[in-house]
Amino acid sequence: MQQTPQVQAEVLLQYTKEKDNKTYFVLKLKSDFGVFYTTSYEDLRDIKHRQVLLRLVFKNISFWEFLKGFYAPSFSIILLQDSSFKKDLRQRILSQHSTQIMGEFYLAIFLADGLPKEWRDLAQSYGIAHIFAISGFHTGILSAMGFFILGLLYKPLQARFFPFRNFFFDVGFLVLVLLLAYYFILTQSPSYLRAVTMSAVVFFALWRGIDIWRIEMLFWCVMILLSLFPQLIFSVGFYFSCLGVLYIFLFFKYFALPKGVIKKLLYGIALNASTFFLMGIIVYYFFPPFSALSLYSLVLTPLFSLYYPFIFLAHLFGFGGILDAPLLWWLGIKTHTIALNPGIFLLILCNILTFVALKYKIVFLVLLGINLAYFCYGLYLYF
């Protein structure tokens, strides 16, 4: 195996540190195989959000470190030519905000740029890091937006010129094309590409009349994604995504959707809460920061489904800074976190119980109970 391969990556963050009276740069980079850190003693200009080629020294990196995210020494950093379209787009977004930190916030949620440290700290405190990283959650919102807007345009054309066409198939296909275009033109984010690929698989299954609500469908999607992107086996984010969707499927399996608007609303709240708590121990194993404020995630996550399309359209029409004042106020609220370290035993136990829960409802409830108890333990340590 080559010990110093040349890799291409995007610079997510760039900041300076000092050691032995020497100043050096720390770079957080995103590549096809995940996110990692490196350092450079060269006198670098600002290369944040730029693509670079560099050689990494993998000699002392273990498999587990590679899986979780790692630091690797590097050399021979080459700056690649930036896309003028993406550069102009960044400038258009930044120009709609009076503060740099708000502009960078929207660059993160629209173009998959690195989230500023202040926003990362807030996201950890409130347990909402998942809504700031472009992924399946955002893909679902964008799909709903696209289906609604394109549906309004397509329906009168269909009624007049081609009533024989299938409305849902045609509009769904157009939405997929736009989602793919968004990947190539704007983000080029691996997590977003995974979400779009899974959307395409689900769309094909619907077209062929396959029941997409069967748990087996999730496993087929996972296998297809792994065959297309084998590096996903090392992606913690992909692992989280699969578990999150699996817990949603298990909730659907063991708790039927009730009748009545109020009961359906309560059902949605219970689904959101169960998924949040079921992910607890596994998430804290990889990302230890914990705060009691993370309970707000139960409210903020569904609210983001309304906020995201609104602010997307606001930027499209040139008034993206409309909510900057309340967001800056929120960012200024002091928070703190503690570190939870569940340990490898609890991680393995939760994974085993997850697979057994595919067959037994009682095991699903036991798994939920263990995670709830651990969350209460976190609250005890926090206060």
Overview of the molecule:
- It is globular and about 70 Å long.
- The protein has 16 helices and eight strands.
- It has a six-stranded mixed beta sheet. The protein has a two-stranded antiparallel ribbon with strand order 7-8.
- The protein has 383 residues and is α+β, with helices and mostly antiparallel strands.
- Helices cover 60% and strands 13% of the residues.
- Helix 6 packs across helix 7 (167-187), helix 7 (167-187) packs antiparallel against helix 8 (190-207) and helix 10 runs antiparallel to helix 11.
Short description:
By secondary structure, the chain is an alpha+beta fold.
Major pleated sheet? 6 strands, mixed
Strand content: 5-15%
**Intertermini distance:** 49 Å
What shape does the CA trace take? globular
Low-confidence stretches at least 5 residues in length (pLDDT < 50)?
none
Helix content: 55-70%
Structural class: alpha+beta
Q: Give the C-alpha Rg.
A: 22 Å
Mean pLDDT: 86
Strand order of the largest sheet: 5-3-2-1-4-6
Keywords:
alpha+beta; 6-stranded mixed beta sheet; 16 helices; 13% strand
Secondary-structure map:
Layout: E1 6-19, E2 22-31, E3 34-40, E4 51-56, H1 63-68, E5 70-71, E6 74-79, H2 84-94, H3 100-111, H4 117-126, H5 129-132, H6 136-161, H7 167-187, H8 190-207, H9 215-228, H10 236-254, H11 261-278, H12 280-286, E7 289-290, H13 297-316, H14 324-331, E8 338-339, H15 344-356, H16 361-382
Parallel strand pairs: 3-5
Antiparallel strand pairs: 1-2, 1-4, 2-3, 4-6, 7-8
